[in-house]
């Protein structure tokens, strides 16, 4: 036999480099559902079902195309439980001359695969810049500013360009991305995909094997094939992209997706292609169907942020996983798993995360992320939570967003200042506060919004560090102007609130 192609669960792309190298007539593709990948963080039930159902459908599509396939199901009695174990089992049975695998998206798995004799790792060409290209870009720069990286990526891909100038006249329409949806405006409903027999079998498997994992398995309406993911994409381009730009930072009670794409899970597993998606968004703008702030805002997220965080991940691993610049040590509160908190904003974010394995960016960053930052929760524990609960979570993208962007635990690699905010920000961008047991306008006492005193407590705890940060200077000066009595009140309110937090059980707390 010639070659064995190991194809991972988030490599479900027809144009994958390992498949492009292979010969369907001779080579064998190995795919495996394994306990190690399913269990290294306690994944949301919907995420598990999504990954396994998409894997099984992709395998079926490869078979139809004529590939020879070796597919291990989670329940196969011979299943060794790990990808390397499955590789060795296949090697023993098939005696391949060579093993090929496209680079995995995680340091942990890369280390394991790099140690397998006879295995060649091929570049993951689904991204628009490779780790070496990013390293070259980053070399010699004191700070990695996403904006400059993004402009270079625009020039490199020619997306939204008129000659050497940005289309529309500006590189970035961020200032037009902060509108609040007027009352009565309705967001488009996501398309729902009825589970077929393959998916129903997976749903039954997940229910049986992972009964205690976080999250609602039903209703399950995610796309698990490329054709359906493309339908979801087209629905977004037609119905939500036109307003994506205006309401990118808004939050609404009980409206999990608003005008966001809900496409990261399909991009990250390989069912959609990022460059193709960006080109389609540009076509919508050029045809006059969407405004520039939407097309540019959307393309910026994929071409800029998505590629940039991947570059940062590979540049800084494995140290990045242990980063804890602010020395945050508090355990993760139980309400991250139960939603059992009086803070209406946090409760809504957790409850919809439990229902959909989804929350949009501002909820992740400015509600659950902001709370963890202000409360000083251990970054690694927060990382495990984000990895587990979102259907789009893979370490290369989740970790820099959590440890860097949300928690500032990397000391400023991802951003020049922490994304810390008091209740006023959440109030401005959402309708949560009106129905909350806490009062967003109150600064002190048991009825005050906890984000208000926790914000100042956070600034006070890190005063000396932040005093050295140019962008935090004005905030530190505001703190310094407070009376000692006011500072003592902030400390007392924060201690009362934080001491009352119930830590999640050890199973969920590392
Ligand atoms: P939209 O808001 O519609 O954005 C469009 C696309 O842009 C997304 O599909 C995504 O591919 C890309 N994108 C947007 N923002 C980012 C970003 N900051 N980093 C990378 N890509 C981005 N994204 C993930 O894909 N997986 C994760 O595990 C993940 N974890 C996160 C954890 C935290 C703490 C934070 C603050 C953000 C995280 N993000 C993650 C980034 C972002 O929140 C999600 O990509 C986005 O919410 C996915 O929903 P959407 O498809 O509706 O995106
Ligand atoms: C996320 C995931 C899960 C839950 N299960 C599997 C699996 O059983 N088999 C597999 O090949 N891949 C799985 N994955 C995706 C891998 O964890 C993924 O390849 C790494 O996270 C690297 O991005
Ligand atoms: Fe969240 Fe504070 Fe508003 Fe309540 S009052 S919803 S805790 S920001």
What features would you describe in this structure?
With about 500 residues, the chain is mainly α. It folds into three domains: about 5-120, Rossmann fold, CATH 3.40.50.620; about 130-190 and about 240-315, Serine Threonine Protein Phosphatase 5, Tetratricopeptide repeat (Alpha Horseshoe), CATH 1.25.40; about 335-510, Orthogonal Bundle (DNA Cyclobutane Dipyrimidine Photolyase, subunit A, domain 3). Helices cover about 50% and strands about 5% of the residues. The chain has 22 helices and seven strands. It has a five-stranded parallel β-sheet, sandwiched between helices. Strand 1, helix 1 and strand 2 (about 30) form a beta-alpha-beta unit. Helix 12 (about 290-315) packs across helix 17. The longest helix has 25 residues, at about 290-315. The protein is globular and about 75 Å long. Iron/sulfur cluster binds next to helix 14, helix 18 and helix 19.
């Amino acid at each position: 036999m010639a070659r064995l192609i190991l194809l991972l669960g988030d490599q479900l792309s027809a144009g994958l480099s390992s498949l492009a190298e292979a010969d369907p007539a001779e080579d064998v593709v190995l795919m495996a559902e394994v306990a190690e990948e399913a269990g290294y963080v306690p994944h949301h039930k919907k995420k598990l079902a999504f990954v396994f159902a998409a894997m099984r459908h992709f395998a079926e599509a490869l078979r139809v195309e004529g590939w020879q396939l070796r597919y291990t199901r989670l329940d196969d009695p011979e299943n060794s439980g790990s990808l390397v174990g499955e590789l060795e089992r296949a090697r023993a049975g098939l005696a391949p001359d060579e093993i090929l695998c496209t680079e995995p998206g995680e340091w942990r798995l890369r280390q394991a695969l790099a140690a397998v004799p006879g295995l060649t790792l091929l570049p993951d060409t689904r991204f628009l810049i490779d780790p070496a290209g990013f390293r070259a870009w980053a070399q010699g720069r004191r700070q990695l500013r996403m904006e400059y990286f993004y402009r270079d990526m625009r020039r490199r891909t020619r997306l939204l360009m008129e000659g050497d100038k940005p289309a529309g006249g500006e590189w970035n329409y961020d200032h037009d991305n902060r509108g609040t949806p007027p009352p009565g405006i309705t967001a488009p409903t996501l398309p729902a995909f009825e589970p077929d027999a393959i998916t129903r079998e997976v749903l039954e498997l997940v229910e049986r094997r992972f009964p205690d994992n976080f999250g609602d398995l039903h209703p399950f309406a995610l796309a698990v094939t490329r054709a359906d993911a493309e339908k979801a994409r087209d629905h977004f381009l037609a119905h939500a992209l036109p307003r994506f730009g205006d309401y990118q930072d808004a939050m609404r009670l009980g409206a999990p997706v608003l005008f966001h794409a809900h496409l990261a899970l399909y991009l990250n597993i390989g069912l959609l292609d990022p460059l193709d998606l960006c080109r389609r968004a540009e076509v919508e703008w050029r045809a006059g169907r969407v405004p520039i702030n939407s097309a540019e805002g959307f393309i910026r997220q994929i071409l800029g942020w998505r590629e940039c965080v991947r570059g940062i991940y590979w540049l800084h691993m494995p140290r990045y996983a242990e980063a804890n610049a602010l020395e945050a040590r508090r355990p993760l509160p139980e309400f991250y798993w139960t939603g059992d908190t009086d803070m209406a904003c946090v409760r809504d974010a957790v409850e919809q995360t439990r229902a959909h394995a989804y929350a949009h960016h501002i909820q992740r960053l400015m509600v659950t992320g902001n709370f963890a930052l202000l409360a000083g929760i251990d970054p690694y524990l927060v990382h495990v939570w984000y990895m587990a609960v979102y259907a789009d979570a893979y370490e290369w993208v989740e970790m820099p967003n959590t440890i860097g962007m949300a928690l500032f635990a990397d000391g400023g690699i991802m951003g020049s200042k922490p994304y810390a905010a008091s209740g006023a920000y959440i109030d401005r961008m959402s309708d949560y506060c009106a129905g909350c047991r806490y009062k967003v306008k109150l600064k002190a006492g048991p009825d005050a919004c906890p984000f208000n005193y926790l914000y100042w407590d956070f600034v006070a705890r890190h005063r000396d560090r932040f005093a050295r940060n140019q962008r935090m200077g004005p905030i530190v000066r505001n703190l310094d102007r407070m009376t000692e009595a006011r500072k003592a009140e902030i400390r007392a309110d924060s201690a009362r609130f934080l001491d009352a937090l119930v830590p999640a059980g050890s199973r969920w707390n590392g």
